[in-house]
What does this fold into?
Amino acid sequence: MDEQRVINWRNCIFFFTVTAVAVIGVPVYIYVNGISAVEIGLFVFGTLATGLSITVGYHRLFAHRSFQASPIVHFLTLFFGAGAFQESVLQWASQHRQHHAFVDTERDPYNIKQGFFYAHMGWLLFRKHKIDYDNVKDLEKNRLVQHQHKHYVLWSVVSGLILPTFMGALMDHALGAFLIGVAGRITFVHHGTFMINSVCHWFGRPTYNDQESPRDHWLIALITMGEGYHSFHHRFPSDYRNGVKWYHWDPSKWVIRMMSFVGLAKGLKRASEFQILSATLVAEKESVEGLIARVTQKFSPAALETLKTHYDRIKFLLHQWEQRVKEHAEICGRGLRKSHELRRKALQRVQEARRQFLRVREEWSRFVVQPAIYA
It folds into this structure.
C-alpha cells in the first residue's frame, strides 16, 4: 500500500481551529454586531475567487489540462487557489491525477471504499499518502507553479488571510472580515470541495459508468461551481465542462467559455455528442445486465439476447448518424459553389439518421426501465 495510517497533526490543528472559529465565532459576531454589506461582500468575493480558482484553475486547467490559458489566468488561479488552503497546485494535481488513475482502489488517495468520512476529509487527517510527483512532470516545467509549490505558505497566507482581512480593515471591519471572509469562507469552500470526494462517490446517479463509484449530483453542483456532475467528469476527465446539458449548473464552464471569447483561454477540449451518447448507452446496458442478474437470480440467456438485440440496433443507428454528420461536414468543407444540391441531400440524410436514432432511443429508454420483462 502507498499509505500509512497516522495522525496528520498539522491538518488536524488547522481544520479544527478554522472550523471552530467559523462555527462559534461567526454566529457570536453576527449576534453581537450584526452583519454588514462589507462582510457579505468579502465572503462572496472570497468564495467565488478561491472556489473558481480551484475548479477552473487547480482542477480543469492544471490537473486535467482541459484548456490552455494566458499567464494572467495562471497567476490569478494560483494566487487565489492558494487562498483556498488546499495545498499547492502541484500537490493537488498529483493527488487528483492519482485519484483518476486508481479510483476505488487502495492507491486512490481518497478512496470511497474506506468510508464516507475517510473520503470526505479523513484522508487529510489520519493518513500519510505517498505523493507521486512523477505524474505532474508537465506542471513542473511551469516556473510559476514551481514558485507557488516552494513558497506555498507565503502564497496562501497573503491570498487567503492577509488580503481579505486588510480589505476589511480599510472599511473598519477587520474582525468581521477575518471571521466571515476568512474562517467562514475557508470552511464553506473546503467542505464543498470535500463533498466531491464523498457525496459524489456515495449518492447520486452513475450516469456514464455503473461499474465505478463516481456519481452525478445536482445539489453538489450548486455548491461547488458545477463540479457535482462527477460521473461525467470521470468518464470524460479532459472535457472542460462538467455539466453538459443546457440546464446543468456549471459556472466554471461558463467562466472558461467567456475567457475564450476574450482571448484568455483557448484549446477548449470537449467530448463529442456521439461520444457522450455512446457512453450513456454503455452505462445503461451495464445497468440492465445487473438488473437481469438480480431479478432472475442469474443471467437469463433469453433476456440477455433481447438486451443485445436492442443495444446493437441503437448503437448501429448512433454510428450511422455520426457517419452522416461527418459526410455532411466533408461535403461542406470542400467549398464547391456548385454543390448546393449535394449539401442539401447530405443534410437530409443527417436529419433522417437523427430521427431514426431518437425514435429508437425512446424505445430503448422504455426498455431499460421495465424490470418485469426480465422475470
Notes: The chain has a mean pLDDT of 91. The two ends are 43 Å apart (CA to CA). The longest strand covers residues 3-4. Strands lie at 3-4, 68-69, 128-129, 265-266.
